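To: structure desk
From: M.T.
Subject: fold request, one chain
Message: Could you run this one when you get a chance? Sequence is below, nothing fancy, just the single chain.
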Amino acid sequence: MDALLSWVEELRLAVSVRTGAWPFAIVNTLHVVGIALLFGGIAVLDLRLLGTSRVIEVAKLARLVLPVAVIGFGLAAATGLLMFVSNAREYWAHPLFAWKLALIAAAGANALLLHMTSWRHREGWGAIVPLSARAAAVMSLGLWLGVIMCGRLMAYF
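Reply: Done. Structure tokens follow.
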């Protein structure tokens, strides 16, 4: 695995991100913007599922914020990959990196489960959101906060 990670770190793009005057700072900034769009959209929807702003229909809010969250995820994933390749061996060896990836996978599975189950009936949701959707919202907030925490702590430990 070390040989593969070393090879990845020597790719022209990885070297450029790692050694250039501005590339890593720009990639890191775009990563934060992606996270903000992702978590901002998800948090607004999750909080609505938990009972805030009941004047806004869940379906209408979802149509507004989910595309923003998806764009944010794409930006965060792409820039996260760029940061990873710039120091692949260091990131791979970091214990919080595995936790971050596991939490991202769990958050994705949680969202998929919500969309495959109670979410498809959201058009009929009135003031009362099903318990399964509220539980998924709590899980979503916790999982994404865990992802953010792992990412931030990786920079300090």
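Reply (cont.): The first helix runs from residue 2 to 9. Let me know if you need anything else for the meeting.
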